[in-house]
Design goal:
386 residues; alpha/beta; nine-stranded mixed beta sheet; six-stranded parallel beta sheet; 12 helices
């Protein structure tokens, strides 16, 4: 029997719960040979840690993060904390020698991200970053189609992330609405996924030619003490929003293509849509997470009378499908939660094999350089080369 990998999750909020979900399910898929021991959930909010640990089957909860890192009963640590805490917590975890998987972004700025990348690359442990959407079979299949030349040479690409978690002005003023604590509003919170998806599918961004950032809801009510998540209870006191609700980027890719990144956290009626659309000299490919069990391909061949975009249902022929689908057969669908299971599986397999994760700290820095260039371009009104 495989020796269990003993894991702990730091952070019991929404992202931390998604990590717990991933670890719980990583060894339950039909294709998995992974064994995991769910040791602990740590969070300064002990009551939340206890609730999360009980829900996902972790043995214990603790508010003592330092004690957890010093424990020889933990092999791997998963980090899902607010952005401003990563630069404080990640160096200690990396120094502990434990394997570490962390939510994006690893830092609020290019400088923070680069410094943490250096620490990770100097470590002998596995270090990975969660860009979960990459593990959705439909998006991965579109990436493979583009990489394999099915649509020819890419000349135009766009990615988007629309969400409405912040559309209600009565929503609590959490750290996500502070530029200092978050490093970016929609641009970084959801833009990190859209930028990474664009680079994953279409190619690296070489220049941000323009960036328009807009704050639509300028003030929000402050949360009550201990409030968690987008639906946290609020007080009568309000405070300013200091980052963007909407971001529109025009970019140039290193391969010569031009592109756009469109982001909104206040898109009423579109709760969670991450997508990529790529046009090449021989066709196009498209994926939208709102229809996560399918993707679309068009190739410019055949009689135009009947030739059109093909809707392809994901199946065992596509990446990650057998790892996360309930049954290994086409049409059973995969979802947002399955992407967390797949990324956690990749992290655990990297620990077993010693092979690095595809989404490592360098991947996070590459995304962050685009965010940094967008902020600079927005402030200066000029193009910024990466």
């Amino acid at each position: 029997m495989t020796t269990p990998i003993r894991v702990a999750v730091i952070g019991a909020g929404l992202a931390g719960q998604a990590h717990c979900f991933g670890f719980r399910n990583a060894m339950m898929s039909v294709s998995s040979d992974i064994s995991v021991e769910l040791v602990a959930v740590a969070d300064p909010n002990l009551a939340l840690a206890e609730k999360t640990a009980a829900r996902y089957g972790f043995a214990k909860a603790t508010a003592d993060v330092e004690g957890l890192l010093a424990s020889d009963e933990i092999d791997a640590v998963s980090v899902a904390l607010p952005n401003y805490l990563h630069a404080k917590v990640l160096p200690a975890i990396i120094a502990s020698g434990k394997h570490v998987f962390t939510e994006k972004p690893i830092g609020r700025t290019v400088a923070e991200s680069t410094e943490l990348q250096g620490l990770a690359e100097a470590s002998d442990a596995i270090t990975g970053v969660g860009f979960s959407f990459r593990r959705l079979p439909g998006l991965a299949a579109v990436r493979n189609a583009v990489r394999d030349g099915l649509i020819g040479e890419v000349h135009t690409a766009r990615s988007w992330y629309y969400a409405d978690y912040a559309a209600d002005p009565a929503g609590a003023l959490s750290w996500r609405f502070s530029q200092e604590e978050s490093g970016g509003g929609a641009l970084l919170d959801i833009g990190s996924h859209a930028i990474d998806a664009l680079q994953y599918v279409a190619g690296d961004v070489a220049e941000v030619t323009s960036a328009n950032l807009k704050t639509v809801i300028a003030e929000r009510p402050k949360p009550v003490a201990g409030g968690v998540g987008h639906g946290a209870a609020t007080s009568d006191e309000t405070g300013p929003v200091t980052n963007d609700d909407v971001a529109l980027l025009a970019v140039k890719l290193a391969n010569g293509a031009v592109g756009q990144v469109t982001l909104s956290r206040i898109a009423w009626g579109t709760p969670n849509s991450l997508g990529v659309e790529v046009y090449g000299t021989l066709g196009h490919a498209k994926f939208d997470s709102m229809s996560g069990g399918e993707f679309h391909i068009f190739t410019a061949e055949g009689d135009g009378t009947y030739n059109g975009s093909k809707r392809i249902i994901t199946s065992p022929a596509h990446p990650y499908f057998n790892d996360v689908a309930t049954m290994p057969g086409g049409g059973v669908g995969t979802s947002y939660g399955d992407a967390f299971t797949a990324e956690i599986q990749e992290f655990l397999r990297a620990i077993i094999t010693g092979e690095p994760m595809e989404t490592n700290f360098a991947t996070a820095t590459a995304m962050m350089k685009v965010v940094g260039a967008a902020l600079e371009s927005s402030n200066s009104g000029k193009p910024v080369v990466i």
